[in-house]
């Protein structure tokens, strides 16, 4: 089971080419914070590990960032929007106007590990939402392919992130696993959104031509 299988299933479903989107390495500054915190956290398949809940303002910031980046491919949108909430959650200075507008939130700042879980939970919610919306637009055959593709992705994410932890130095294992899970979830969410948006554009174009 690998990322290429997931991509092929999506291409089969909608007849679209899908560029591979490799995961971006963990940024050094954030890694240093994560290395200092290595609790044992459960990793239920398909769900982010339990952690502090995101605030509505944090969810709204991700949604706003994705909206401003909607003309960009998933990798570019990822670069603009991912890791921002996790960084601000730790008390780091915000980057960009929207982050500067985040109010002082109760229960913040937090250590690096819980902050990674906060942002992962937001991307998980977005991934689930865009998966549902994409499924509503797909044919019955497409829905089945989408379910198979998502199961393949979840299995790949869990295995890849577990392996990344096991292949790291013990003091860095949890940091790498959490980083991997956040980034894999964010990239998958943005890829599902891209597919949904392309279908909506096709529907809109067909409606105009039919007039």
From TrEMBL:
Residues 115-192 form the Lysozyme inhibitor LprI-like N-terminal domain. Pfam families: LprI. It comes from the Bacteria. This is DUF1311 domain-containing protein. It comes from Neoroseomonas eburnea. The lineage of its organism: Bacteria, Pseudomonadati, Pseudomonadota, Alphaproteobacteria, Acetobacterales.
